[in-house]
Every structure is written in structure tokens, then in C-alpha cells.
Amino acid sequence: xxxxxxxxxxxxxxxxxxxxxxxxxxxxxxxxxxxxxxxxxxxxxxxxxxxxxxxxxxxxxxxxxxxxxxxxxxxxxxxxxxxxxxxxxxxxxxxxxxxxxxxxxxxxxxxxxxxxxxxxxxxxxxxxxxxxxxxxxxxxxxxxxxxxxxxxxxxxxxxxxxxxxxxxxxxxxxxxxxxxxxxxxxxxxxxxxxxxxxxxxxxxxxxxxxxxxxxxxxxxxxxxxxxxxxxxxxxxxxxxxxxxxxxxxxxxxxxxxxxxxxxxxxxxxxxxxxxxxxxxxxxxxxxxxxxxxxxxxxxxxxxxxxxxxxxxxxxxxxxxxxxxxxxxxxxx
Length: 332
Description:
Elements (H helix, E strand, L loop, with lengths): L1 E5 L8 E4 L9 E11 L1 H7 L13 E2 L4 E8 L11 E4 L12 E5 L3 E3 L6 H5 L2 H14 L7 E4 L5 H12 L3 E6 L4 H6 L4 E4 L5 H4 L3 E6 L3 H7 L3 E9 L6 H7 L3 H10 L1 H10 L2 E4 L6 H12 L7 E6 L3 H9 L6 E5 L2
Parallel strand pairs: 9-10, 9-12, 10-11, 12-13, 13-14, 15-16
Antiparallel strand pairs: 1-2, 1-4, 3-5, 3-7, 3-16, 5-6, 6-8
Helix pairs in contact: 3-4, 8-9
């Protein structure tokens, strides 16, 4: 099969390679991939920034979510059959959706929302699961609560705003003037122009912050949270609590604790709970999300679709940070 691979860590371009079609285990399906999406985690993996969390062998196929059709099922797969249209985020040890086929565990897949094209469906799994696990599982966001969602016009932001509104929350978000109309259309109640305004000076007493940017933006987010509130970040640093829950072992947990020392101090100072989210695949949660989409409560937001041979251009465009919504690679 054809696949887009990297041969080493670093800011290296994707290389089109011919590699064997994967074999499947008894609990897996072989999926023919029709479309995949580009996500910030693709750059982090390429650059070697998740080496402490996951070890990969080279050459490595990038790509972390997809939609497609089941081509083959393992002996113990009963929920799905050949020909089913599915969408999924594979587990971290089995990534590789910038390819014609992927072997994926049956627990990680769900039937594709019926009202979406393959390109639209491919835009959902990673951002949908990330948002659901942050807002529903960790924050347990309640009707009437206030949440700040950073970078509302981005891939995760466009989904998270819709989910937060569906859960009955009041939503503030940061966006440029170019993204204002989009986030307004998704239901954002207050929009902070990050180029001309400082969100930490405008927003106060928020119940939750969903951070997708990390760094200084994450640190400033502690200033808008009320005592007892929650901050969930997908771009911040893992802390000791994450290390213990993830089973990282004593040495790595110690490293996480040292690296996140400043965040831990802010956590105590403001009496809030900081959680680093390393999203887990879940076919069950994708079924819940598919229902939201099929009933018209959440819609996919796509900026641009690139052909498979231009996967490197898709990566470069997504990495500019200018995309409004998701960037898609059309494979079939």
C-alpha cells in the first residue's frame, strides 16, 4: 500500500512510500482509508515531542484519525462487518492514517455519521474525542457554567464550542477578526480578539478553561478561573498526577513533576485543578458524537481538503495556524 512516512524525528517532510498492507489480529479490522485529518499532535510526533509518552519505530506513518470502509474483520469482531463505513482515532501505538489501509482495534471504531461525507467524517474523531473527554469527563461541565475555550476557530475549538453550547454552558473564546464570524455562528457568547485584547484582563470568575495553546497563554488562563475551577490542556506540560494515572513510572513522573513545577504553583495559588489531557480512543464515545452530528446538534468545520499526494502541503498549511476548522487529506 501507499503511505506517507517520516524516517527520523525533526521537521522533516513526509515521504511517499510503498509498504506492506498491515496484517490484522482477531480483535482488529482492516480499514480502507478514504480520508484523514491533520492535527497538531502530528507535528508533535514528527518533532519527537511525545517520545517520553510513546515510542515509535521508523519509518513511521503519521496521521491520527480517519474515515473509511472495513475491508476485512478479525475472528472475534462481531459488531462490524466488511463494507461498513466507519470513522475512528486509532490508539497511540497504532497510528498511521496517512495511508491506504490501517489495522485498528474494534473498540476504537464507530459507524460513520450517516449525514457526513468521508472528508467531513475524517475531521471529527480526534477533535471530537478530545473535546468530549475534556468537557464531559474531566470538567463535567454543567448547564449555566462559564467556560473559556482558547483558539475557537481552530480544529479543536470549533468542535468544543458546539459541544459546550450543547451542554448548556456560556462560552467565551479567543479568535482573530478573521475568525469572529465563524465562532459567532457556532454559538460563542463572548469573543476576545487575541491580537488587540487581553483575555485575562476581560474575563473573570470562569468555571473552566479548555486550553489548546499551552505556554504563556495557559499560565494566564489561571487568572480567569474562580476558586475550585478546572483547567484542561492538550498543549501544556504533563504533571505528576498525569504520570501516575498514565503509569509512566517513577523516573518519568519525576520529570513531569519538575517540568510542570510552575503550573503546580499556579494550581495551588488559584485553588484550581489543572489536568493535562492525552486523549484516549473510544468507539463508544464516537457513537455518542455520531448521534450529536446526525441529529444536527454539531456540524463539522473544514477549512481545506488536499489530495493524498499533497499530504506534506496539508501539514505545512495546518502548521501555519491559519486554518479555520480542520485540514483534510483525501486518500480515496
